[in-house]
Amino acid sequence: MPSAVGERVATAAEQLPASVRTSLRWLPSEALHVTLRFLGATPRALIPGIGEAVRAPAADQEAFPLWIDGPALVLARSGVLALRLADAEPLIRLRDQLDATLERIGVAREGRPFRAHVTVARSRGRQRVDRSVTDVVAAAVAGTGWRAEEVVLFESHLGPAGARHDRMVVAALGPRPAAGRADGRIGEASGQRPTAQVRGSQSTCRSPSERASSPPSDYST
């Protein structure tokens, strides 16, 4: 994700009344991402297949532009402040291909429709985000764009100090490199939570995957 998105969101947040600004947990710039799929608790045996499921659709999709545009692209629901992406057809196509490859290894499709968005803040009390916040943030980032170039599978570790997200697989968009060069690695653990995201020049689509010591964990892609 371009640093410009986080910088503009931070500038917009400073324009809000202190009581409104502090009612939200703002994501740091480096944590902003576009999630293709969050998988939830996942058995260890599926981990290698999930890694390949990330690489396969990425090889069939060339790098593509993404951008945020207009106040209407702000979502304020369930205590989440998110920015929708404009003209996200390539991203939706990539997600559909990913779902198909995951389904072939036994990972069921999500029941809800995919919404291409970037989450920028969450309400501390889970109440709905005030519409005035969405208007200010949307105006600040309208027209910001970048080029998506990679899909990344992340593993998320939850702990008292907060979540830590480790890269497991990095798959460049477009044809695979020559044989002998690895696109990424898959960690060995008893349970993991993967997430797949898309990255690019100044941009990121990441996937957090979580690792637990013995029970199955969650994956996103």
In a few lines, what is going on in this structure?
Helix content is 25%, strand content 33%.
Strand and helix map with partners:
Blueprint: H1 3-14, H2 18-21, E1 24-26, E2 35-43, H3 47-59, E3 64-68, E4 74-77, E5 80-86, H4 89-104, E6 117-123, H5 131-141, E7 145-157, E8 164-172, E9 191-192, E10 194-201, E11 203-205, E12 217-220
Antiparallel strand pairs: 1-6, 2-9, 2-10, 2-12, 3-5, 3-7, 4-5, 5-6, 7-8, 7-10, 10-11
Helix pairs in contact: 1-5, 3-4
Notes on the protein architecture:
The structure is a single chain. With 221 residues, the protein is α+β, with helices and mostly antiparallel strands. The protein is 25% helix and 33% strand. It contains five helices and twelve strands. Helix 1 packs across helix 5 and helix 3 packs antiparallel against helix 4 (89-104). It starts with a helix and ends with a strand.
Q: Major sheet, described briefly?
A: 12 strands, antiparallel
Judged by helices, strands and strand pairing, the structural class is alpha+beta
Series of H and E elements: HHEEHEEEHEHEEEEEE
- Strand coverage percent: 25-35%
Spans where pLDDT lies below 50 across 5 or more residues: 179-192, 201-219
Mean pLDDT: 77
What descriptive keywords fit this protein?
alpha+beta; single chain; 33% strand
